[in-house]
């Protein structure tokens, strides 16, 4: 009887086998929070290991070292936003609707993913050093310009968008308007109040960002085209 009990306890004591891919995803999720909150130098691998119920050794096995993990988190963050843009299927929409949808998606994605914005801010502190080392990030981001160029060229071919625009500059403008909303939300709301950061305020800003970009690209005689869906 005693022997049977010991065998039963031995079986119960065996740790559950964890899915390696699931472990990697957990590590990346927690590492995103840790790096975005504390930066590269302030993030602690011990903390990531404790929160994911794994070990430093396992983290280093998957990602090489702390900087390797940080770079992989950056790649995951950019992969998420670019994947979301791809899912918009902009080619199926007319140029005005496509650009409106892209602007709103960018604004709403950044608002819903403040860790992504903080990660980009951290990487800018490091002068983009880890992005320079990542071919993955370069490959992920180039299609964003190519997709925007297709929308822009279709709008120009239809006589809706003015000439002299570049997709890179347009991408910069959309990113800037959406990025500031998150990166400076704390200081802006402390100085001017939090009205713009309520749910209604954010919905209004999302709509107005799309309006501003469309008014910039549209030929003056087509300004009224943006009023139908945005009024």
Can you walk through the features of this model?
This protein is an all-alpha fold. It has a domain at 72-230: Tetracycline Repressor, domain 2 (Orthogonal Bundle). It is built from 13 helices and no strands. The chain has helices spanning 2-13, 20-42, 45-51, 56-63, 66-86, 95-112, 114-125, 129-132, 135-157, 167-183, 185-192, 199-217, 227-230. The radius of gyration is 23 Å and the shape is globular. The model has no long low-confidence stretch (mean pLDDT 89). Residues 44-63 bind DNA. This is AcrR family transcriptional regulator. Residues 21-81 form the HTH tetR-type domain.
Concise synopsis of the structure shown:
Helices cover 76% and strands 0% of the residues.
Question: Can you lay out the helices and strands and say which pair or pack?
Answer:
Blueprint: H1 2-13, H2 20-42, H3 45-51, H4 56-63, H5 66-86, H6 95-112, H7 114-125, H8 129-132, H9 135-157, H10 167-183, H11 185-192, H12 199-217, H13 227-230
Shape: globular
**CATH level-4 homologous superfamily of the domain at 72-230:** Tetracycline Repressor, domain 2
Structural class comes to mainly alpha
- The separation of the N and C termini measures 78 Å
Q: What is the strand content?
A: under 5%
List the uncertain runs.
Answer: none
The major sheet is characterized as:
none
Strand elements, count: 0
Order of helices and strands: HHHHHHHHHHHHH
The total of helices stands at: 13
Level-1 CATH class name of the domain at 72-230: Mainly Alpha
Q: Share of helix among residues?
A: over 70%
Query: Gyration radius, to the nearest Å?
Result: 23 Å
The overall pLDDT average reads 89
Topology-level CATH name of the domain at 72-230: Tetracycline Repressor, domain 2
**Which CATH architecture of the domain at 72-230 is right?**
Orthogonal Bundle
Pfam family, one: TetR_N
DNA-binding region: 44-63
Protein name: AcrR family transcriptional regulator
Domain HTH tetR-type: 21-81
């Amino acid at each position: 009887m005693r022997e049977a009990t010991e065998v039963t306890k031995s079986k119960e004591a065996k740790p559950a086998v964890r899915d390696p891919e699931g472990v990697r995803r957990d590590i990346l999720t927690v590492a995103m929070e840790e790096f975005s909150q504390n930066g590269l130098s302030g993030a602690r691998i011990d903390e990531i290991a404790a929160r994911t119920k794994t070990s430093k050794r396992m983290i280093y096995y998957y990602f090489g070292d702390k900087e390797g993990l940080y770079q992989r988190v950056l790649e995951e963050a950019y992969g998420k936003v670019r994947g979301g843009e791809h899912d918009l299927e902009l080619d199926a929409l007319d140029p005005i609707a496509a650009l409106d949808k892209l602007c709103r998606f960018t604004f709403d994605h950044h608002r819903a993913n403040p860790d992504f914005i903080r990660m980009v801010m951290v990487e800018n502190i490091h002068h983009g050093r880890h992005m320079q080392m990542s071919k993955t990030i370069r490959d992920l981001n180039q299609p964003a310009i190519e997709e925007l160029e297709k929308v822009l060229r279709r709008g120009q071919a239809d006589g809706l968008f003015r000439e002299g625009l570049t997709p890179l500059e347009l991408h910069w403008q959309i990113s800037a308007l959406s990025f500031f909303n998150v990166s400076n939300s704390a200081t802006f709301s402390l100085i001017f109040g939090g009205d713009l950061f309520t749910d209604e305020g954010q919905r209004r800003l999302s709509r107005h960002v799309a309006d501003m970009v469309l008014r910039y690209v549209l030929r003056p005689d087509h300004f009224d085209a943006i009023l139908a869906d945005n009024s």
